[in-house]
Structures are given as C-alpha cells and as structure tokens.
Specification:
Shape: rod-shaped
Radius of gyration: 43 Å
Number of strands: 0
Order of helices and strands: HH
Helix content: over 70%
Number of helices: 2
Oligomer: single chain
Strand content: under 5%
Length: 138
C-alpha cells in the first residue's frame, strides 16, 4: 500500500484578480447592503457614501496605476525582445555579406589562376608545335 506522501500531485494556480470591474461591483453591492442593514440618518448615510466613494476612487486609481505599470513592463520586455531579434538578424546579414564577399574574392583568385594556367598551357602547346615544325625530318 502506498503512502499518501508518495502520491504525485499537481498544483494549479489561477490568477484570481477579477480586475477593476469586479472590485467596483463588489464595492457597490457592499454599499447597498450596508444601506439596507444599517439604520442611520440621511446625513450619516451621505457621509458614509462619500467616504466609501472616496475609498473606491483611491482603490480604482491604484489599480489603474498598477495596470499601467504592468503594461509598461510588458512593453519594455517586448521592445527588448524585438531589439534582440533585430540585432541577431542584422549580425547574421552582416556575416552573410562578409562570407559572400570572401567567397567571391576566393573564386576570382581561383579563376585567375585557372586562366593563367590555361594561357601557359596554350603557350607551351604553341611552342611545342612551332619547335616541331622547325626540326628537319631525317
């Protein structure tokens, strides 16, 4: 029988942030319930509503600032990734151009050596033919 400590398990984490909309909805529902259950004067209720609205505004502003911060961080990461890829491609293109230039120079040198060898062979053949024509036959 296996011990429960040896049984593999999986932990699934979910992002539970409902966003500003869920927060606002929860605050409004809470305020409504508070109004229904708390017997206060109209003035006290107005003050409490003003205070709740102020807290809600502060919390919403904080959420917006946090969302902007996260968005800016993600944009910065994306920019860095694009710049990195751009640099890699630019370096690869530069290396390719250098390799092509080097290969062309090498090919041109080999072609010149081949032409020189061809000319030397043609010249040697002409000299051999000319020397053979000059020798008397016995």
């Amino acid at each position: 029988m296996r011990d429960h400590d040896e049984v593999p398990y999986i932990v699934i984490e979910r992002d539970r942030s409902g966003g500003v909309g869920s927060f606002v909805l929860g605050a409004l529902v809470g305020a409504g319930v508070a109004l229904l259950l708390a017997p206060k004067s109209g003035e006290e209720t107005q003050e409490e509503l003003k205070e709740q609205a102020r807290k809600l505004r502060i919390a919403a502003e904080e959420r917006v600032r946090e969302a902007q911060k996260q968005l800016e961080e993600r944009l910065d990461e994306a920019r860095e990734g694009v710049q990195s890829r751009y640099d890699e491609v630019r370096d690869a293109v530069t290396a390719g151009r250098e390799a092509a230039t080097e290969a062309r120079t090498d090919l041109e040198q080999k072609l010149e050596r081949s032409k020189a060898a061809y000319r030397a062979g043609v010249s040697a053949a002409r000299e051999t033919v000319a020397a053979g024509a000059e020798e008397p036959e016995d």
